[in-house]
Structure formats: C-alpha cells, structure tokens
Amino acid sequence: MECRFDAKPRWERRKEARPQELLAAALDLFVERGFASTRLEDVAKRAGVSKGTLYLYFENKDELFKAVVRNTIVPAIGAAEVTIAADETCSAALLRSVILSWWERLGATKASGIIKLVTAEANNFPDLACFYQDEVINRGTKMISTLLARAVERGEFRPMNVTVMTQVLVAPMLMLITWKHSVGPCERTELDPAAFLDTFLDMALHGLLSASPPSAPVVPA
C-alpha cells in the first residue's frame, strides 16, 4: 500500500488564517499566565508557527497585546456605540441591553481575562495601561455617559452627576469580572452572573428613572 505524506504544515495550509491564530493563542496565554509571564515563543508554538513567523505580523509583545485588545474588546465597544447612536427606544431598556450585551460579548468570554490582567499588571506596564485607558476605558466611559446624558435631557432619567454615575454603573461589572478570574472558581456557592446583573439593573434603573417620566407624544386624530 502506498503511503502519501503530502499534507502541508498548518502554517502553509492556512496562511491567511495566521494572524487570527496568533491572536487566539496570545489571548489564551495572556489570560492563563498574565502579560509578564507570556513569552512570544510560547505564543508561536501554540499557534503552530515559528517565532520568526510571529515577527512577520507583530513587532514585539506590546504590539501583540494591543492587537489582542483591538481584536476582542474594542469591537464590542464599537458595536455598543452604534447601538446607542441609532436606538430610539426608552433609555432604561437601552441601558439594560448595553450592559447585558457587554456581559455576553466580553464578560462571559475569555476576553474578560484581559480586563482582569490590565487591572492586575497596570503598575508594572504603564505604557500598556495608558494604551488601555485611551482605547478602552475612555471610550467605554464616554459611551455610557452619552447614554445617561441623553436620558436626562429627554426627562427619562432624573438629573445626576453623569461622570460619577457612569463610574458607579461600571464598578459592579468590573467586580463581576474580578470575581470570575479570582475567587470565583473556588467558591462553594457560585455567583450567578445573570442573576447578579439582573438584580443590579433592577436596583440601578429604579434609582435612575425620573419621578415624572415624559408623557407619550399626542398623536393627532
């Protein structure tokens, strides 16, 4: 029986997929080991390519990390920005949708480990912390603030300090991610993220709603 060995190596067989394979491998290792302990040769090995191939796409570990953030976290923020800009439903429903979508697209996925990584290692890597501040935190904060300010202007939410309220709304979501990647796996009684977010939103929205919500527009007969 003739044996044929004509299968091409993974990196030749799927050349167009290399960047995404490298980003997926980097995400895995950053979440597992943290930024400091992740080595580029390990990323290349997990992706099934040589270290030299990795350098064809990413100059160094900093640039690889930035690409992971831009590939996993930034698109979710962009999608929420588009939703907020185009959505004309009531602000309470919109805020609920944005927060639940955030958990579905980020919090419940491996990408949430990047958020925890930045929190843990920011002091040791200030340049990366500044990058994350500019591309993720500032943009996400502006997104929520825009929603709140518009709701106040419409009379749907009561007057508030929008900057502080944005921080108050973000804090429980960050806590949920921190729990997930720290003591969560060790707890005997597991915290249910869906129930946590539902309870949080119930409390937050009852506190935000205006005492006298705007009346529905009168439609001429």
Textual characterization of the structure:
With 221 residues, this protein is mainly α. The protein folds into two domains: 10-69, Homeodomain-like (Arc Repressor Mutant, subunit A), CATH 1.10.10; 73-208, Tetracycline Repressor, domain 2 (Orthogonal Bundle), CATH 1.10.357.10. Helix content is 68%, strand content 0%. It is built from eleven helices and no strands. It has helices at residues 10-13, 18-33, 40-47, 51-57, 61-72, 74-86, 91-107, 112-121, 126-154, 162-180, 193-208. The longest helix is centred in the middle third of the chain and has 29 residues, at 126-154. It starts with 9 loop residues before the first helix and ends in a 13-residue tail after the last helix. Residues 3-8 and 217-221 have low confidence and may be disordered.
List the helices and strands and how they pair.
Elements: H1 10-13, H2 18-33, H3 40-47, H4 51-57, H5 61-72, H6 74-86, H7 91-107, H8 112-121, H9 126-154, H10 162-180, H11 193-208
Helix pairs in contact: 2-3, 2-5, 2-8, 5-9, 6-7, 6-9, 7-9, 7-11, 9-10, 10-11
The CATH homologous superfamily of the largest domain corresponds to Tetracycline Repressor, domain 2
* Number of domain modules: 2
Give me the Rg, rounded.
22 Å
CATH topology of the largest domain: Tetracycline Repressor, domain 2
The proportion of strand residues reads under 5%
Instruction: Summarize the helix and strand pattern as letters.
Output: HHHHHHHHHHH
Count of discrete alpha- or pi-helical segments spanning 4 or more residues: 11
Helix content: 55-70%
- Which structural class fits the helix and strand makeup? mainly alpha
**Level-1 CATH class name of the largest domain:** Mainly Alpha
Q: Mean of the pLDDT scores?
A: 87
- Main sheet: strands, sense, barrel: none
